[in-house]
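Structure representation.

___
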Amino acid sequence: MKRKELDRRMEAENVSQLKYMLEMVLYNLRKRTDIDINLFMGVDGRIFASSIPDDLTPSQYSLLSTFRSNLPNLCGKLKVEDLEISLERWKGGTAIVASVGENAFLSNLMLSSTDITEMGPLIEDVVNTTMVLGHIFEQKPMSEEILSAYPDVVRDELKKLTRQLFVERFKHTRQYKKNMKILEFIKDKIKKSIGVGQVDQIVSVTFNELGSSAPYMDDEAWHLFLDKVVDNHLRKIIGDIQAEEYKKLWKMELDRKMKKFL
């Protein structure tokens, strides 16, 4: 029977993952709207994250330049006047600027000349996005208790982002790299004890017995995995005495390898 795929999620655990998650928020907003460029910034002018087309058109570049020339004035309003949301319209386009907490804001630049009276849904989307950005930027937990305070659309977006972050970035985490090294260590031990022929089969069957797979193992699971490899598969080939020696020796080496990742 096929094992049910787990709905794995991941929260940002370091600066790199935090920035990546913020950029995902901006990219998702830009792709579902007419926004051409968006920037998540501090009131001091620092850019925390952005979503900008790889190749700016002359019109987009001109709009970005206009925004930059107006940036000191916008930052001043955000710092001094407690500006919450502002819509700026120039000849070359429009900017929707919305605060994110006390010291940051989201700027959305667009070339489209949508009538202001028809921009309600877009502005609502921007406001919801500021709540998403604020939650991530302040590194709040993704607990149900905290998420329940948000509108449904914000809560759903935050949950979707943790899933997206896992899918796109888990292979770059320390946990994943550690587990891949441990897997290679165990496979090498099996190969040296009985040859290469049965290594993959033994590893695959043992993971099935545990109901897990290499990327998601923890230290306790690896010890159990090693026990099963020796007791369920190697013992009948190499004998009891050799099996016990290997198990003792390999566990000592496994512990040393795990400590390198602390």
The longest helix spans residues 58-80. The two ends are 37 Å apart (CA to CA). The CA atoms of residues 3 and 211 lie 8 Å apart.
